[in-house]
């Protein structure tokens, strides 16, 4: 070939072109040669993880900030451990690349035709691909150097277009074989809309915006995933109407903005947001996903709410198919609807109760206290736990400063995702993680990777000794009565702060507000390793906005 390239180098070059700066990996003999010969000499830094699910969560967190994330594992024993992380990325539209180091063609044929098995084989060449084909938008097997460029480009283009995971089987005997070098730069495929549906949808929505006296804009997660923050802000400013977000899209725009009213998430919402939603005569939902985390004992009024998401517009009995969200916003902007003069309801700040240094920390008291430490340079991540409720009402002023996996809601996501978030964030930002003790037990080894690479998230572990959110979902009356927790919800207690001695980082155990203040002060000064703050709270203490569910 006139220009030298190999399959292994081709994949590295394409990932680098797409902005990948870090690759999360677990060493495996089917992938180690690609990692050692091609990734190591490149500008992509290898982040050696401790297990595949942590690597997947880290890559997911990285992708949410960087626009693409990747992990490399080995066949079956490694890849199948990453299924849960990839599934979460698929549900939440996160562009993730799973590279699966795979046995050679010779080993595969030997197993299939003689039964002589290479390690990690299950049932031949289809097992892993079949496992991932339902939770990725492309699954490819690179078993030909001549087809490798086409296959890799196809898969990566699907990844950046659909903002969802892809799966690449990279056979160990392919990486050094010559192939064509990359041509041009990969770009997302064009976004298409049906012109008739688009025009009808724009006309219907503009008519509603013009006639409504108290319209409201509800911004969803697709605003973030599709990079539409600036266009959404332009529309809100043009209309001069208040806007709310959902938990999954919290802080998609700055929460310091004068038109921001809060997070609309059912009965967990603040009274001000509940009043705003109730008194609005038209709600425009842009990129909002309807989930049970959004409802929480409350149903949207479908007769007054237009939902534009998943390339369609739904409003009452109207359905407009193949309407891209970006094109819809552009169309509404072009109509220049007259701005409104609606005054926002008074936003009730979280109660600033006076607490003494020796007072015992409560769940709600913790969140009231921690607000003072969150500024425009803070990235907050809340795990699937009662921390959803506490963090929902936090004011996060930095746009893009909140990361949550609330649609898929895999317990244990946030602490491990913080590894990727720390590597993808700006240098002037600091990551704070709020996790339950049960969730942290699932991915605690993330501290090893974070310490190894001198990352400095501050991880608050709310230690109440139970899977509180699971108990709350099953029977919330336990938190309001002298009743025992369900036995499966009771945890084995860890001394979380002492893990700092195991992993070589910093740790504090606190039970009072004075101890909490000292711990946060120390953690903010700790720049070279993660900080664990074990926050002891009474086992039946829950955030105020979770108390509506008594049974």
Automatic annotation (TrEMBL):
Classification via CDD domains: TPP_PYR_PDC_IPDC_like
Superkingdom of the source species: Bacteria
Domain annotation Thiamine pyrophosphate enzyme N-terminal TPP-binding: ranges: 6-109
Residue ranges annotated for the Thiamine pyrophosphate enzyme central domain, each copy included: 202-305
Co-factor requirement: thiamine diphosphate; Mg(2+)
A GO-annotated cellular component: cytosol
Keyword annotations from UniProtKB, A to Z: Decarboxylase, Lyase, Magnesium, Metal-binding, Pyruvate, Thiamine pyrophosphate
Keyword Calcium: no
Chain ranges of the Thiamine pyrophosphate enzyme TPP-binding domain: 393-535
GO molecular function term, any single one: magnesium ion binding
One Gene Ontology term from the biological process aspect of the record: aromatic amino acid family catabolic process to alcohol via Ehrlich pathway
Reactions mediated catalytically: a 2-oxocarboxylate + H(+) = an aldehyde + CO2
EC number: 4.1.1.1
Magnesium listed as a keyword: yes
Primary enzyme class: lyase
Residues binding Mg(2+): 437, 464
InterPro entries linked: DHS-like_NAD/FAD-binding_dom, PDC/IPDC-like, THDP-binding, Thiamin_PyroP_enz_cen_dom, Thiamin_PyroP_enz_TPP-bd_dom, TPP_enzyme_TPP-bd, TPP_PYR_PDC_IPDC-like
Bound cofactor: record note: Binds 1 Mg(2+) per subunit.
Recorded family membership: Belongs to the TPP enzyme family.
Described function: Decarboxylates branched-chain and aromatic alpha-keto acids to aldehydes.
The protein's name: Alpha-keto-acid decarboxylase
Organism of this sequence: Streptomyces gilvosporeus
């Amino acid at each position: 070939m006139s220009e030298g390239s190999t399959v292994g180098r081709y994949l590295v070059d394409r990932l680098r072109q797409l902005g990948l700066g870090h690759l999360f990996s677990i060493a495996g003999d089917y992938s180690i040669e690609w990692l050692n010969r091609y990734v190591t000499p490149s500008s992509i830094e290898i982040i050696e993880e401790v297990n595949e699910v942590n690597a997947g969560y880290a890559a997911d967190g990285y992708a949410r900030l960087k626009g693409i994330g990747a992990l490399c594992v080995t066949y079956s024993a490694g890849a199948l451990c990453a299924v849960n992380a990839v599934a979460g990325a698929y549900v939440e539209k996160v562009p993730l690349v799973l590279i699966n180091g795979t046995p050679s063609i010779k080993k595969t044929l030997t197993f299939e035709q003689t039964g002589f098995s290479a390690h990690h084989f299950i049932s031949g060449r289809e097992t892993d691909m079949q496992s991932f084909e339902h939770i990725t938008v492309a699954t490819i097997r690179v078993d030909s150097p001549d087809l490798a460029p086409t296959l890799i480009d196809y898969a990566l283009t699907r990844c950046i277009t659909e903002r969802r995971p892809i799966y690449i089987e990279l056979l160990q005997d392919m990486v050094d074989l010559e192939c064509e070098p990359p041509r041009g730069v990969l770009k997302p495929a064009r976004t298409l809309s049906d012109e008739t549906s688009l025009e009808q949808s724009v006309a219907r929505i503009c008519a509603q915006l013009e006639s409504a006296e108290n319209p409201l804009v509800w911004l969803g997660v697709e605003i973030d995933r599709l990079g539409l923050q600036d266009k959404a802000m332009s529309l809100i400013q043009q209309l001069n109407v208040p806007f709310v977000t959902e938990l999954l899209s919290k802080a998609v725009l700055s929460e310091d903005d004068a038109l921001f009213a809060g997070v609309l998430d059912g009965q967990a919402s603040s009274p001000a947001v509940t009043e705003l939603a109730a008194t609005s005569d038209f709600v425009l939902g842009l990129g909002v996903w309807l989930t049970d985390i959004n409802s929480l004992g409350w149903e949207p009024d479908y007769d007054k709410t237009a939902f534009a998401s998943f390339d369609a517009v739904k409003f009452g009995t109207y359905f407009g198919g193949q309407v891209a969200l970006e094109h819809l916003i552009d169309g509404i902007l072009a109509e220049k609807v007259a701005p409104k003069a609606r005054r926002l309801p008074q936003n009730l700040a979280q109660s600033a109760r006076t607490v003494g240094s020796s007072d015992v920390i409560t769940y709600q008291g913790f969140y009231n206290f921690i607000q003072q430490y969150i500024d425009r340079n803070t990235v907050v991540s809340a795990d699937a736990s009662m921390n959803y409720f506490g963090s929902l009402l936090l004011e996060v002023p930095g746009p893009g400063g909140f990361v949550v996996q609330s649609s898929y809601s895999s317990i244990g996501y946030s602490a491990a995702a913080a590894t990727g978030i720390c590597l993808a964030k700006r240098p002037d930002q600091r990551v704070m993680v709020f996790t339950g003790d049960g969730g942290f037990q699932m991915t605690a080894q993330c501290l090893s990777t974070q310490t190894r690479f001198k990352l400095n998230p501050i991880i608050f572990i709310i230690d109440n000794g139970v899977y509180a959110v699971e108990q709350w979902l099953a029977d919330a009356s336990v938190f309001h009565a002298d009743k025992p927790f369900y036995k499966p919800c009771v945890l084995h207690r860890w001394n979380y702060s002492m893990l700092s001695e195991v992993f070589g980082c910093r740790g504090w155990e606190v039970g009072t507000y004075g101890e909490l203040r000292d711990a946060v002060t120390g953690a903010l000064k700790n720049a070279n390793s993660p900080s664990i703050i074990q926050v002891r709270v009474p086992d039946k203490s829950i955030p105020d906005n979770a108390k509506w569910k008594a049974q």
